[in-house]
Specification:
By secondary structure, the chain is an alpha/beta fold. It contains 4 helices and 5 strands; from the N terminus they run αααβαββββ. Helix 4 links the parallel strand 1 and strand 2. Helix 1 crosses helix 2. The protein starts with a helix and ends with a strand.
């Protein structure tokens, strides 16, 4: 039985090596991967977590090891990845897709990091409609706020401003 197990392990290792070569080829030869990498690094730098990205790995774009990071660092790196994907989708579609943020103040994120998040949205995604679910103020321009009292469908009110690009939920 040990021999069969060893053969299976060797076969899986070979398959894994083949897949890693395909991933590395994709990363090194496609504009999509290049754009994603540049945006992830840009946003990670703006969030002061650039040094936490596994820069030494050629395929960190496809890492499954983000959970090894903790707290605010993980939150900011995940945000960097997500915004890079949004940016790339916007480029491919030649349009601006909506962005939804749920509780940007959550998970022990410090106010300065929330401000950096808002700054990235203002600087790089001002054309995207952004939905933010929060009980705190979120510093954005041209905000429409919907106050939700008790539950989402009961007594909802909205505050409207000119040319909104942000819908702000409060309850």
């Amino acid at each position: 039985m040990s021999k069969v197990l060893d053969e299976n392990i060797k076969s899986l290792q070979k398959e894994n090596n083949k897949l890693n070569k395909v991933v590395n080829t994709f990363i090194n030869t496609t504009q999509v991967a290049t754009n994603l990498e540049q945006k992830i690094l840009l946003f990670a730098d703006e969030l002061d977590v650039l040094d936490s990205i596994e820069k030494k790995r050629n395929n960190y774009l496809f890492t499954s090891n983000l959970k090894s990071l903790g707290g605010t660092v993980l939150h900011n790196i995940v945000f960097s990845f997500k915004m890079a994907y949004v940016s790339q989708i916007d480029n491919i579609l030649n349009d601006h897709i909506p962005i939804v943020l749920d509780s940007p103040h959550g998970r022990e994120v410090e106010e300065r990091n929330v401000e950096k998040t808002a700054n990235i949205l203002k600087k790089h995604f001002s054309e995207n409609q952004t939905f933010v679910a929060t009980i705190y103020d979120f510093d954005m321009d041209n905000v429409n706020t919907i106050f939700i009292n008790n539950n989402i469908m009961e007594n909802a009110t909205a505050i409207t401003t000119n040319e909104p690009n942000l819908l702000h939920f409060e309850y």
